[in-house]
Design a protein that fits this description.
This protein is of the alpha/beta class. It has nine helices and 14 strands. The strands form two sheets. It has a seven-stranded mixed beta sheet with strand order 6-5-4-3-2-1-14. Strands 7-8-9-10-11-12-13 form a seven-stranded mixed beta sheet. The chain starts with a strand and ends with a strand.
Length: 260
């Protein structure tokens, strides 16, 4: 499998995954044109995409879904509980391209398993598997728990939210108190601290590569997230660059990972 995040954050989320027989997108939070431009960097055309997988209804995850799907007749997969709030937003998409699931499903040679995560709307992360290889995507969640850990354990690679620095969020003058409380709440977004705690548990289950994702442009920076989380883990005896690696997803295309 190959996987690359082409955009991450509140400006738009887009992840591309490829196997021998499948090419899929997880979320399309960029315009159709920009999505095509970023796929072109990989030598991929919109007509090559087999499916679009949606995590939840927020615009930074579905902005270009409607146009891209209709232009190339790409089926859209979303959990039954997510579709409840997607129908009105994607009402121009033909019914044949609206795919509903409630449990694990397959797209050609890929097995996808939804992982419900706590957010202020119905939201699902995903584990994607082929043979012995497993990757997971967990963004837009306010906290983690044992159920989520069990769902993604064994992932060689995981995209995990590290949305904000607690101090930066607390002191952010642009955000009203209500928004700060929503972000920091149990159904908001993971802080660097919470992300570090979960990564510690992931490492214990064998995860070798973590990509910090969905960073806030106002309340975090790639350098801060990487250094802070690496330091927190080092304090627990887990040194970045030895048994595991940390990367950071940005608003532009970043590292292409290949799982063999």
């Amino acid at each position: 499998m190959k996987v690359i995040n082409l955009s991450s954050g509140s400006d738009g989320n887009l992840t591309y995954i490829e196997s021998e027989n499948s090419r899929i997108l997880v979320d399309v939070g960029l315009s159709c044109k920009e999505t095509q431009n970023r796929l072109a960097l990989l030598g991929v055309d919109g007509k090559d995409i087999d499916a679009i997988i949606i995590t939840h209804e927020h615009n930074d995850h579905i902005k270009g879904v409607d146009v891209l799907s209709r232009k190339y007749n790409i089926p859209i997969y979303a959990h039954e509980q997510v579709w409840a709030n997607l129908y009105d937003k994607l009402d121009k998409v033909p019914e044949r391209d609206k795919k509903i699931f409630t449990e694990s499903f397959a797209i050609n040679d890929l097995k996808l398993t939804p992982v419900e995560v706590p957010h202020d709307v119905k939201c699902f992360g995903y584990s994607i598997e082929k043979n012995e290889k497993k990757i997971s995507i967990l963004t837009d969640l306010g906290h983690t728990n044992e159920r989520i850990l069990r769902s993604v354990q064994g992932s060689q690679l995981i995209y995990l939210e590290a949305n904000h620095d607690l101090s930066m969020l607390k002191n952010c003058e642009k955000y009203p108190l209500t928004l700060k409380m929503r972000i920091a709440g149990k159904n908001g977004h993971l802080s660097n601290d919470a992300s570090a705690e979960f990564i510690e548990e992931l490492i214990k289950t064998g995860t070798k590569q973590v990509v910090l994702s969905h960073l806030s442009t106002e309340n975090n920076t790639p350098e801060l997230a990487f250094n802070y989380i690496s330091s927190k883990l080092a304090d627990k005896g887990f040194v970045e660059g030895e048994s595991f690696r940390i990367d950071v997803a940005l608003t532009r295309p970043t590292t292409l990972f290949k799982l063999k």
